[in-house]
Amino acid sequence: MKIPDRGRHLDMEVFINRILNYRYHWHETKYEVTTVLRGRAIYSRGGEAVELGEDDLVVIEPLMGHASLALEKGTLTMTAYFDMAATAGLAEAGSILSFGIYRCDGTNRHEERFRLLRATVADIILSAIDTSPLARDALACHSGLLLPVLMAHFEPTSRPDSRRGELSPISASAIVDFLEAHYMDKVSLEALASYTGYNRTYLSTFFKTNTGLNFHDYLTRIRLKHSLSDLAYTDKQMTAIALDNGFSDLKTFTVVFKSNFHTTPSAYRQTVQGVEKAESVDSRILLDPHDPFVLAKLSSYSQRGLVS
């Protein structure tokens, strides 16, 4: 559910999500805070794979490729997104505010900073579904706490924003559409230059400026996203999946897949065989926050009585 901005430039969204098979994606301008409410899941992000259990959480920064895979049936998470515009003035010029590669697990899940972060997101959701007269004010209070909690407890630093610079007249979406249509081919910057009418050097700079990733990395992410779909929803042979998604051979596909998800394509396919899967690799399965288990869990995190 979207949280009303009320002039604070948070552009926040919160939801309860049911985790199934990998959904590989990244946010161009969003920070993400996700907590496991029930079950266990593998989170792959930024080339790292971690196993999270109940009450564990991760903080994910803009442009960080990530995916989650349920290890138990019925795994649920709560997630909050907020836009990096909320951090304007807090990071150095031309930089993004970085909270590091933070996670909590069985060794540290009871630390106060993680308790506060869980409580803050839970209270945002509880206030959003509250119908009492003061609910709107409580929602503004709790949603306004998320960034201060991160700033106070998660050692923020500044890292270069690779997208800095003036926007080009080329449409970034048109380039992304081209890659989505041709990711299975031997796509090159030269081919993209021919498509757009701009030279290779200009396009390389443009791509980094507008997506934050270099051309090859962005193309690889698209190929991985589609290969995950083939592994979960088709019975194609591994070599066919590799070639159909633009990888030069099965060995290259396996190396790239393992470096991102810390498992092999064949092992991932075995994991999702015979289990319930989302309708597509892009699907998000949302759960009503009024669900009795969810309400009880959020209430166990809540500190609303102390704040609102």
UniProtKB/TrEMBL annotation:
Alphabetical list of Pfam families matching this protein: Cupin_2, HTH_18
The protein's name in its UniProt record: AraC family transcriptional regulator
HTH araC/xylS-type domain boundaries: 173-271
PANTHER family with a match to the protein in the record: ARAC-FAMILY TRANSCRIPTIONAL REGULATOR (PTHR43280), HTH-TYPE TRANSCRIPTIONAL REGULATOR EXSA (PTHR43280:SF2)
Recorded superkingdom: Bacteria
Species of provenance: Candidatus Aphodenecus pullistercoris
Keywords from the UniProt entry: DNA-binding, Transcription, Transcription regulation
GO molecular function annotations of the record: DNA-binding transcription factor activity; sequence-specific DNA binding
